[in-house]
């Protein structure tokens, strides 16, 4: 199926997931009025409820695609779900205890509700799996490499959507994509391929984020453990949920809130300043990897909507040839660079769900995995 034949039929989500008043909503794009179907979940299994509501509004489901943050060292492409793959992914939970368990639970829930419905997993790490070896290695004992301890990188479906969306432009030249949101990373892309990225073994590394610290001296963790102020569960909590913008500001992980309050709150201003500072620093490092820069892309919730953050990052990159047009930047135009800027600066919406849909269709109906998928459905 080519992109010309793609059509969005439905989209939706679950609000207050896990709470007694959780609500499932689906918008119907076949209806000119964008009719929305809503359903109280109560204690119902959410994934099974989604399948049931989709069928109630008259859409036939041929397959289900999942975004999995972590694919480990073995997966460079989407894969059909089967018992062997599930066992393999379950063994990787130690590397990603935050994201993998709920993703695997959703897969198993669909298996229970619709056992003959084929499923495909699309890995956020796959886009980076062919980075140069020097970009994948960590300076640790070699036996840890054999255990899978290496730099994987994440947000790969977002980066892939940018590259594909740019067409021929996305497959030539030196590009840095800044995926800035509650989770944040940057990737250096040469001729459409990832050559380095800021995240590493986990989605904790690299640039500071909404509630995650990003890179820091590993000695900090040793200190926290040795001081006996933190056991492993508490350390998990502080690293995933109490650091980053929230930790520095002590107000919010939401960049909008911090931008609104930074004029009157020194901690909010410091959190924004640190985020901008780190983003500039990582752009500089990735430019060194690329040997120059032709295109800079902002994406993600902050990258797409926080004009002041884009502006302040760009002000520190003028020596690289980055110059923004103030009016274009303020309105979030597709191209925000000034006409004389040596570096083209774009704002592009990430389309991870679209990439999952395309990969799922291709895996089930266009590739050599069709026969395997057919066997699984039987």
Report on this model:
The protein is α/β, with parallel strands linked by helices and 378 residues long. The chain folds into three domains: 1-59; 62-166 and 352-378, Nucleotidyltransferase, domain 5 (2-Layer Sandwich); 169-347, 2-Layer Sandwich (Nucleotidyltransferase, domain 5). Helices cover 40% and strands 15% of the residues. The chain has a five-stranded mixed beta sheet with strand order 9-8-7-10-11, with helices on both faces. β7 (174-179) and β8 (185-190) form a beta hairpin. The longest helix has 25 residues, at 266-290. The protein is globular, with a radius of gyration of 22 Å. Mean pLDDT is 92; it is low at 369-378.
Q: What is the highest CATH level, the class of the largest domain?
A: Alpha Beta
CATH architecture of the largest domain: 2-Layer Sandwich
Helix content: 40-55%
Overall mean pLDDT: 92
Strand content: 5-15%
Record the strand order, biggest sheet: 9-8-7-10-11
Counting structural domains, the number is 3
State the separation between the terminal residues, measured CA to CA. 23 Å
Low-confidence stretches: 369-378
Q: Please, what is the CATH homologous superfamily of the largest domain? A: ATPase, nucleotide binding domain
Overall geometry comes to: globular
- C-alpha Rg (nearest Å): 22 Å
Could you describe the largest sheet, including whether it forms a barrel?
A: 5 strands, mixed
